[in-house]
Amino acid sequence: MAESKKLQVTLVKSMNGRLKKHQACARGLGLRRMHHTVEVIDTPENRGMINRISYMLKCVEI
Fold first, then answer.
1. What does CATH list as the number for 6-61?
2. CA 19 → CA 1, 44, 45, 59, distances in Å?
3. What is the DSSP letter of 5?
4. What CA–CA distance (Å, rounded) separates 37 from 48?
5. How far apart, in whole angstroms, are the C-alpha atoms of residue 37 and residue 11?
6. In the chain, N or C terminus with fewer CB closer than 10 Å?
7. pTM summary value
8. Could you tell me the residue ranges of all domains in the chain?
9. How far apart are CA 19 and CA 33, in angstroms?
């Protein structure tokens, strides 16, 4: 079984004052607070959330 690619995502800007949909995307990725880093599987759904809030994130492929 091939190992799926992962992305390391870090929240670098605050969620305060952002659109509700953008806050929901950050929560959906598992981000809780600033400078919080999570690893997510590289799927089209996760890519879509990352693209929507790319201005708030730092993303690295693992």
1. 3.30.1390.20
2. 39, 22, 19, 20
3. P
4. 18
5. 7
6. N
7. 0.88
8. 6-61
9. 16
CA distances, 4 to each of 41, 42, 46, 62 (Å): 7, 7, 13, 10
State which amino acid sits at residue 3. E
Rounded Cα gap, residues 54 and 16, in angstroms: 16
In order along its 62 residues, the chain shows pLDDT tens digits of 557 899 999 999 999 999 999 999 999 999 999 999 999 999 999 999 999 999 999 999 98
Among all chains, which residue has been given the structure tokens 């400078």?
35
Q: How many residues does the chain have?
A: 62
Distances (CA, A) of 58 to 36, 37, 38, 46: 11, 9, 11, 14
Distance CA 61, CA 17 (A): 28
Find the DSSP H helices in the chain: 20-28, 44-52
